[in-house]
Amino acid sequence: MRLFSVVAVLAITGYLMLPENVWVRTVWQVTTGYAATAAILLGAHRLPRADRLPWWCFAAGVFLNTTGIPVSVVGEIYFGFLDLPTPADPFFLGLYPACALGLGVLVWRRDRRRDWTALVDAATITTGFGLLAWVYVIEPQDLGDRMNRWAHATQVAYPIGDLLLIGMMTRLLRSGGSRGPSLWLITGALAAFLIGDTAWVVLGNLGEFGVMLENARWFRRPLESVFLIGFLLFGVAALHADARQVAAAAETPPARLGRGLLALLAGASLIAPALLAVQLHHGTVVNGWALVFGSTTLFLLVVVRMAMLVRETERQARQVRDLARSDELTGLPNRRAWNDELPRALERARRDRTPVAVAFLDLDHFKVFNDTHGHPAGDRLLKAAAAAWHSALREVDLIARYGGEEFVVLLPGAGAAEARQILARALESTPLGQTFSAGVALWDGSETSDELLKRSDAALYVAKANGRSRVELASDNWTMQQAG
Predict the structure, then answer these.
(1) Angle at 98 between CA 95 and CA 103, to 5 degrees
(2) pLDDT digits (tens, 9 = 90+) for 80-126
(3) What pTM was estimated for this model as a whole?
(4) Distance CA 146, CA 150 (A)
(5) Residue 220 has what pLDDT?
(6) Are 312 and 353 in the same domain?
(7) Residues 295 and 388 in one domain
(8) Cross-strand bridge partners of residue 440
(9) Sign of the CA dihedral running 266, 268, 269, 274
(10) Is residue 309 in some structural domain?
(11) Mind listing the pLDDT tens digit for each residue in 311-332?
């Protein structure tokens, strides 16, 4: 890759200094393009077979575009092919579908899920630049007679190809996965082609001044080298070690709406009013219906994008709320969620005049278990115990992690006898041969949630003092030994 990079720099530098001989320039261009094709194929050969297809597509595009150079020169010098379409145009145009196919394969392999947000972003940018292409390139062409229609079709095929590459390139950059050097080299190669095509379109619209610039060596030679840079960047991208990661399935999420992307979307959305302002400044609106269609499409795309952004924000807000109320280790409700739910449960019990019980659970000898087996084993015990106890409870019951190895249980509608049965099942289900001590308090109908918790906590300490592996009922000091 380093050797080819040095050769690429020398190739571009040498081309700028070549004499004004059409055959020397043609041979240099063709040699550079075919060398880039060979570099792409060599880089692809070093990759796993499943990852070679997009690089083969890029190689095909560079090969076809390079082949169009000698075909164009020979056709112009020996056969007088000056007007579009020429035999070289199919080769030049072959670059677009080949590269678009390669980009499509990369997008599909990097991001298998349907990312509608990225698709809307790509559509917005493509629509904005498409409106520019329509106003300044496509619509101004005179359809004329039958031959001119072929010329018109050929002329508009180039900006359409550029729009295709813009859309696919935007979608690729919005995908997940690696964003290493190879990806940016591919982006630079495509950008070089787009810059070169745009420059030729601008020259064509400048009339005699454009012809003068086209014939000026100091201008034409750097402009021609832009396409050579595109060829060579593809070769460097294929030979780079990071090429192995370009087609890898995404492990990182897609790029978010950063400042650069936001600026690009804003610029694309403002193209339609900017074009209208220019035409109003010149005193007449030439492309009224195109501007109406483009403005409407861009407006709808912006609305869709805003709706997606709002939904994503709401989803993230819900996720944050859920995380704030869930224990990270066990997945149970945490102390914050418990403190919110207990007063509501007591209020329902007051309204419906039904009993409610609260229990404090504490794993017995958990510190000894941790010291013996290690903290990872302790975490696994907490997760397993939480899952087992949750399964032993009723659907209406709530268990939450209060802190450390302490858990709290809310038993709506449960009196003393039913609370005993429920906690007995939970005690028997404790995994890894472990046990817990528990204190249960029945709500008296008037005390606060804090007072109720204090009574159940006091009963828990009684259970520990009486030998653990048991449940103490705060109201009557009832004890229950572990079954067996």
Answers:
(1) 115
(2) 887 778 899 999 999 999 999 999 999 888 876 777 888 888 888 88
(3) 0.67
(4) 7
(5) 86
(6) no
(7) no
(8) 359, 473
(9) positive
(10) yes
(11) 888 888 887 777 778 888 888 9
Instruction: For residue 246, give the nearest of 168, 181, 331 by alpha carbon.
Output: 181
Residue 326 is given by DSSP the state B
CA 413 to chain CA mean position, Å: 48
Residues 214-230 have a mean pLDDT of: 88
Specify the pLDDT at position 40: 96
Over pLDDT 70: what percentage of the chain?
94
Instruction: Return the half-sphere exposure (C-beta side, CA atoms, 13 A cut-off) of residue 276.
Output: 13
pLDDT at 250: 67
Distance (Å, whole) CA 41 – CA 36? 9
pLDDT value at 477 more than 60: no
State the helix-helix crossing angle for 449-465 and 335-352, rounded to 10 degrees.
110
Instruction: Tell me how far apart the alpha carbons of residues 271 and 301 are, in angstroms, rounded to a whole number.
Output: 14
Task: Give CA–CA dist 252/450, Å, rounded.
Answer: 45
Nearest CA to 271 among 116, 119, 135, 120? 135
Domain that includes residue 340, residue range: 335-481
Q: Answer for the pair 181, 242: CB distance below 8 angstroms, yes or no.
A: yes
Mean pLDDT of 212-229: 87
Please, are residues 32 and 228 in contact by the beta-carbon 8 Å criterion?
yes
- Here the tokens at position 191 are 């950008």
Q: How many helices (H) and strands (E) does the chain have?
A: 19, 6
- The reply to whether 329 falls in a domain is no
Overall number of domains in the chain: 2
Q: What is the largest distance, in Å, between two alpha-carbon atoms of the chain?
A: 111
pLDDT at 139: 73
* Pair (457, 352) in one structural domain: yes
Q: Residues near 161 by Cβ (< 8 Å), separated by ≥ 6?
A: 93, 95, 96, 97
Question: Residues 315, 342: one domain?
Answer: no
Provide the 8-state DSSP code for 363.
E
Place of tokens 């550029």: 162
> Which of the listed residues 271, 295, 319 is the one where a domain comes to its end?
319
List the strands of the sheet with 436-442, edge to edge. 398-403, 406-412, 356-363, 436-442, 470-473, 478-481
- In order, the DSSP letters of 271-300 are HHHHHHHHHHHTT--SSHHHHHHHHHHHHH
Q: Strand 470-473 relative to strand 436-442: parallel, antiparallel, unpaired?
A: parallel
Q: Are residues 294 and 400 both part of a single domain?
A: no
Domain-embedded: residue 326: no
The per-residue pLDDT for 413 is 92
Q: Residue 186 burial (CB < 10 Å; 0-12/13-18/19+)?
A: buried
Domain boundary among 319, 353, 373: 319
Eight-class DSSP state of 330: T
Q: Which helix (H) or strand (E) holds 116?
A: helix 116-133
Q: Are residues 53 and 142 in the same domain?
A: yes
Q: How far apart are CA 328 and CA 349, in angstroms?
A: 30
Give 242-280 pLDDT, tens digit per residue: 998 888 876 655 656 678 778 888 888 898 899 889 888
